[in-house]
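Hi Y.,

Following your request, here is the sequence exactly as I used it, all 171 residues.
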Amino acid sequence: MIAAGLSLFGMRAFCKKYPVFLSVCLAGLVSLASCSDDSRLPTMELQILCGDGREVSVVAEVADTEETRSRGFMEREVIPDGTGMIFVFDRDQILSFWMKDTPHPLSIAYIDSRGIIRDIYHMTPFSMASWTSTVSVRYALEVPQGWFEREGIGIGDRVVIGQDIVGNTVR
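Below is the corresponding structure, written out as tokens. Let me know if you'd prefer a different format.
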């Protein structure tokens, strides 16, 4: 059965007459399929223990490989409040992030191996400037810009990095 009332002969004639049009349509469909949520990473819920005793949750995608850490939130236009991305490294080190090809304004918290937030910076979309941790840290948490302040989260607060992150792999 052929949709839109085209006979098999009519469809063949259309294909022969408009091959470029059909190629463009096919390329568009392939492109749309590749833009699906397949770029999303596995997630985990992180708890942030604030100095005033409050507990705040964030659902974070986990970037725990060189490839996923390099890609981060590049080309993501929408990142809702209450979500983010946790970058997991295998050792403590000075970390530096930039916003190349990242259209959404972000805030970044650098977190040491004990889960303590050591720095928070606001990063500018598409900027090639580097935001560097002031001390060696193990993790970085990116969230929509201003989310830490809106939730009352600051330097010295603690992110509970659970046993789900072991050896740079999410279980």
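The longest strand covers residues 83-93.

Thanks again,
Q.
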